[in-house]
Amino acid sequence: MPDVKVSNLNKIFGDNVVLDNVDFTIKDGEFFTLLGPSGCGKSTTLNCIAGLEQPSSGAISVGDTTFVDTDKKLFVPPEGRNLGMVFQSYALWPHKTIADNLAMPLQIRKVDKTEQRRLIDEALDKVGLLHLRERYPHQMSGGQQQRVALARALVYSPSVLLLDEPLSNLDAKLREQARAWLKRLQEDLGITTVYVTHDQDEALALSDRIAVMSNGYMIQVGTPTEIYETPATAEVAAFVGRCNFLEATVTDVTSTGAALKLEANGQQMTVDTPEKVTVGDHVTVAVRPEKLAVLPADDTAMPGTNVISAEVLTTSYLGSRFEYDLKVGDHVVQVVNDRGGLAGAVNLTVDPDACLIFPQADVLSEDAQALLTVAP
Ligand SMILES: Nc1ncnc2c1ncn2[C@@H]1O[C@H](COP(=O)(O)OP(=O)(O)OP(=O)(O)O)[C@@H](O)[C@H]1O
């Protein structure tokens, strides 16, 4: 399977810059996800690869074949690209059987009838629906229809699979099952896949690499672990997984620069970080809810570093864990913990290694700010 190379892609609708120098390469057989909030340009990027949208400038190639190069005024139409695409809506023909739905792309490619039947059965077998080949779409569940849409995209052996939120019409449970199934299928087929979603859990679970997009930019490209553990900006930390943010001022830096002392909310904290900062810098400290420890205020087992007094506001029991909202000064801090039954005054400890430091100019969205502030 070939690489996909997207170079300096720009798209302008009227005076709205929707893609701003988007640039990435997807490796052979990779599951690559475009992740970001609604309107950030994910679908436009995917549609440019598919040929459904013409970029204002830039180039796209798959393997040795160039599909778009605006400098050379080259544009290969969608039907000349041999890419498989699945949309959120599945786009199945309601009055055609499943087998006939799959026959459509083969008829367009003038495949003979015997070969059509073989390819249709092979594709339906891959998605586990061969026994339902004569049914109509309305006689199938949402999950089955989603598999048919995928089989239809695979039936002509596309070089790359393009998936635009293909699981978002499924309910939560089915969606999780479909996610695991899709991952196995993609690995078995080894097909290079570009996946669009605004669902961070889906992106983390499915992808070899994720590109986080915001306002037409690609902010960070990395493996799920890199994106989650070492987000490039506070915005990425806020968007991928949950995160607590605290505004702080640097009051001391060790000679090696590895540890900082910070003052936040009138409390002192020590943080280990590779970031280069100097005394007086205003920074944003980010820490994931599961990296915080919380114990009753009178528990003497609490370690000495970064102990912060807090008060339990709400407790949510989620079966395998408890989630707490704690009041720390004027802020709400979210903590995930195995231990239930915490109430009233508690102590929170922050592991110096668990904190991420960002420049304070790296402004958080108003939504993130609102989430973290205690209402008056
Ligand atoms: N044909 C068009 N004409 C004008 N503006 C458009 C057009 N298509 C998309 N846009 C705008 O481009 C921006 C990016 O849209 P796009 O569909 O790529 O976002 P997205 O990240 O996929 O969002 P969503 O998850 O909601 O689909 C949006 O502001 C959208 O309104």
TrEMBL record:
Membrane-spanning ranges: none
RNA-binding found in the keyword field: no
Organism: Phycicoccus sonneratiae
Span of domain ABC transporter: 4-240
InterPro entries the record matches: AAA+_ATPase, ABC_SmlMolc_Importer, ABC_transporter-like_ATP-bd, ABC_transporter-like_CS, Mo/tungstate-bd_C_term_dom, NA-bd_OB-fold, P-loop_NTPase, Transp-assoc_OB_typ2
An example molecular function term from Gene Ontology annotations: ATP binding
Protein keywords: ATP-binding, Nucleotide-binding, Transport
Protein name: ABC transporter ATP-binding protein
Pfam family name, one: TOBE_2
Entry keyword annotation includes Chloroplast: no
